[in-house]
Amino acid sequence: MKYTLEYVTTKPHLWASSDPVRPELDAEFKSSPGRGVFGLLGEDGVWKAFLCYARVFLIPGDVEELEEFTREDGNIVIPYTVWSHQKGAGRTIINEVLSLVRSDATMNVDRVVTLSPKTEMARKFHLRNDAVQFRMNRTTVNFEYEVIIESR
User: Fold this and answer.
1) How far apart are CA 77 and CA 142, in angstroms?
2) What is the DSSP-derived secondary structure letter of residue 10?
3) 3-class DSSP state for residue 51?
4) I want to staple 111 with a disulfide (CB 3.0 to 4.6 A). Which of 8, 29, 76, 93 is the partner?
């Protein structure tokens, strides 16, 4: 199936009520300056996955630090929630976002580090997708994805 990665931050009706990872974070939090949401649209017109991210200047260990460290010009992208409605779509959306970051030097992103829940499912997901565990926190884990931007 073909997919299209779309920036859907301004369309919370698509994603606001379906986040099983961080349902306590509302649309206002997820769409405030320095944060955004990508959606993965299938060729059948159905949304397959969503990814919420923040741009930060320091790697957060929890949601409170994520809020504190978020800056529109942050050089680190933090995917802090990823969920899918179709098997394999979570992997596809993280890879599409990584491809976007890697191919656009004007984004000024040096690192992609998650703020993941401390679950076996999250650990397996990120390790299967070639991330490395960066840091274990009290309630979260940071996994880092390699970012090599060839046009710099």
Assistant:
1) 12
2) T
3) strand
4) 76
**pLDDT tens profile 68-101:** 999 999 999 999 999 999 999 999 999 999 999 9
150, pLDDT greater than 60: no
Q: How far is CA 55 from CA 12, 107, 111, 124, in A?
A: 19, 10, 10, 24
What is the DSSP track for 58-111? S--SSHHHHHHHB-TT-SEEEEEEEEESSTTHHHHHHHHHHHHHHH-GGG---E
Q: Which of 136, 128, 137, 51 is nearest to 145 (CA)?
A: 128
Q: Which amino acid is at 84?
A: S
Residue pair 127/116 in contact (Cβ under 8 Å)? The answer is: no
